[in-house]
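ESCALATION

Customer reports they have been waiting on this structure for their group meeting. Please prioritize. Original submission:
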Amino acid sequence: MRSSIIDSITRKVKSAGQTLGLAEETRISKLFGKNVFDRPAMKEYLSQEAYQSVVNAIEKGTNVSHEVAEQVALGLKNWAMDRGATHYTHWFQPLTGQVAEKHDSFLTSGNNTQAIERFSVESLIQQEPDASSFPSGGLRNTFEARGYTAWDPSSPAFLMETGKSRTLCIPSIFISYTGEALDFKTPLLKSLDRVDKAATAVAQYFDPRVQRVTATLGWEQEYFIIDEKFYNNRPDLVMTGRTLFGLPAARGQQLEDHYFGSIPERVLDFMVDFETECYKLGIPVKTRHNEVAPSQFECAPHFEDVNTAVDHNQLLMDVLDRVARRNGLRALLHEKPFAGINGSGKHNNWSLATDTGVNLLSPGKDPMGNLQFLTFFINTIHAVYQHADLLLASITSAGNEYRLGANEAPPAIISVFTGQQIQEVLEAFMAQGLEADSSKANKSKMPMDMPAVPSLERDNTDRNRTSPFPFTGNKFEFRACGSSANTSEPMIVLNTIVAHQLQQFRVAVDQRIAQGEAKEAALIAELRRTYEASKAIIFNGDNYSEEWLQIAQSRGLKTIRNAAEAQEAYISPKSVAVFGATKVLAESELHARAEIKLDHYIKKVEIESLLAEELANTHIVASAQRYQKQLADTYRGLKEMGLSTEADELKEQAREISSHISAIRKLIAEMRAVRAQANAEPDTFKQAHTFAEQVKPLYDRIRQHADQLENLVDDSLWQLPKYREILFIR
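Update from on-call: job pushed to the front of the queue and completed.
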């Protein structure tokens, strides 16, 4: 079975360049936004009044009137139908972590049963999916089904081309009948509004012209690409997204030859196809390259406002999956699909930009400019220090547990990397105030002592890939997010905690000014106090080292053992207070989200446990027993020939196999009993802890024995495709 799969894949690789050509349109600028109802499309299909109203909604957050929405509905329908659309859908992001859509036809019966196409303003503004069929964390009961999706004018509608269908997709929020958020977008939009208002108020200390501050995001998406036939013959990949069993190949990533290496032709053809679809949807994919692990790759876009960036990332993951399938491949977005090599993350590069064109996290060239930078820099650090546990809760999951802290991804202790140059500026500021030399925060020249090569610009910080939250010159990079995650969740938390901290900072500075301090002196005094209170979160060393664990403990920084424990942060009094003060999420919504994440964690671990049991019995042990029978037959033959020494060696090999089979069976029985005990626990938090601390370790131990059997059993009898095949035959 495995050999025939390998033969067919080899043939496919040889013909890849012939069968998968370049897209017809190779000029990106001509292709970009082709399927997006963007500003040029709105100008063509809307009146000037409607166009300006939607632009104001995007740029200023103003409401779109019902009358204008009617014009938008008509323009959208005409634009979509001109491009072959027959259906429309509210495209939303429920708490499943996936996107959701319900397609309705434009078809409407007219007079005398005549068929016409119609798209009403009511259909644009609002739809009614079944709220009880999505995760609600107890906010909705089965008999309380009503929920609403509502149009988000700040994110452009787009046309999804899938096979023969063309569907108009309208980005939307999703709330319950009683108004609670049942999605990621609703609290994200609220958090963006709060950080806008709080940051604008503080930015006006430095420039009264500032009227709006936009949070920006640039994500980096890592993923694996493997052949579809290997995928289909690995039930664990199909059911869980990762390999529950598998002996690491002799060659993994230790030669360090895959990172930035030449992209395999078949994969590059897929990438061209994938990027073409992204460009048509207005996703500004800029970068593609090989990642560290074999068969691992990465793409990254230009920076966008957070709301659009999140929508684009959710859309990109969907496109990635669909395009991989049509190229005979599969894209793996699980955080740790293969043991022994790096997993995949999604780095979130976050910053704040004013409507006057200033990046508030870019070091200034003069004292007051530097003071503005330090104001937002120090307040962000303090927000992270105050709510590090909440940031961890936003990115922990069953999949990300296998990745975090495994000497490949930031550990489950939040710290901030500032870099040497910025750290020197901070320390000088603490000692000297505005007299400190701010030039160290800017780029410097690095002369090259060789002919023809020009001088390089040295950034104001080095890069620390071991840090969960490093500063990288003019932005913070939250590196701990998992590759399959919806980026809304960490962005909701980051925006909210920074907004809350900036609100408190503004109040404190205003109080000092009211008491007679000069504005500049008040800012400096409050910044010094804030920095002093949050220094413990700064670490510029190796976050993978044992030394850091000891330092973190001595500083009182929290270490999270597993995802079950992490979710407790969502319902802590401190988190309830910060979300309540900013009105981003109510206490009931926070409890619901913690409940949903725990329930999802439990189900993920239980599915892996059940599948590990099934595969161990029907694939691993079965293959081992067939090989034992072969050994027994060979043993008897050797004995008959008088080759006792050789026969005894086979006997020892059979005993070793038997010991692993016995251990697997014993562990399966133990796991089954613990799983039943966990399922009988009514408290979700306790149940999640049992699955995390007792069930999960058992199937990890089963894997150890199964992987040893893979190394002992005849290769021709092993049913599951091996790592050396999956990762290296492309």
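Sent to customer with the following note: The chain is about 50% helix and 15% strand.
Escalation resolved.
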